[in-house]
Fold this protein.
Amino acid sequence: MPHLEVSSAAYLVGGVGESARDGLPFPGQHAQSSQTGLGGIGAIVTGVVSPIPHPAESDPAGPDPAVRAPEVDPVAIRGCLTLDVVAVFDAEWEFVLEAAKQSKDLAGVGELLAKWRAFAYQELREPGAYFRVLATAAEVQRTGRAPAGSVSGAQIRARIEARLAEAGLPGTGRG
Amino acid sequence: MYRVVVHPEAADQLAELPASTLADYARVLDAIEVVPWNGPPHHEGNPDWAVRRWPFGPGGAGQVLYLVLDRDREVHVLRVLWLEIG
C-alpha cells in the first residue's frame, strides 16, 4: 500500500466522518479552530501540529519492554502524548466533561480515561500509531482494499483456538 | 453479517495477548461480525464515525479498534490494544 500522508488536523475534530461512511474528513474543519467541530457540537479545538520529542522516538531498538501504561489520570495520560495527539485528547475530554455536567453522570469520564490510557500506552510503545491507524482507516474507506498481509477473521479464530489449546484452556467452541 | 478482515498489525498483536484474554477477544470478533455499530465511536464527539472500538477483558484493559465498511459489509480490525497491568 502506498504511503499515505494524513494531517492530524482532520482528526482533531473527530476525524474521518460519516458522513463517516463516505470516507472523507468533515468539510471545512481545520486544526487551528473549529466552531462547529466535534460533529457540530460547538467545541473549539486549538491544536498545534508540531510534534515534540517523544520518549520512545530516539530508541532505534523499538518499544522498551519496561514501558508501563500511565495511571488512569488525565495529567498522566497527557504526559505520554505528543502535542497533536494531546489536542485530540483535550477536545474529547472537554466534550465528555460537558456531557457529564449535563447528565450528572461521571461514567463517561471513566470510560474516556480507560480508553485514552490504552491509546497513551500505544503511543509510548509505538509513537505516531494513533494517527497511522486513522490514516489506514481513511485509506481503506477510500479504496475499499485491505492492506497487504491482512487475514480473515476465520484465520484469527484458528490462531486463537491453537493458542488456547497450547495453554491448556478450553476452546471457544467456534474454531 | 459482516465479513471480518484483520489487518496485519492487529494480527501480529494477537501474540501479545495473554492466553486468558483470548476467549474474550474471540467474543469481540463474534459481536462485530453481527453488530459492529454497537461499539462506541473512536471519538465521543463523532458518534457516527465508522471507526469504532470494542473494550474487552478485565476492566476494559483491551480495546479492539475497527472500521465498519457498510458498502462492502466488512469490518476491518485495525489494532488490538492491551494494557499490561501488573
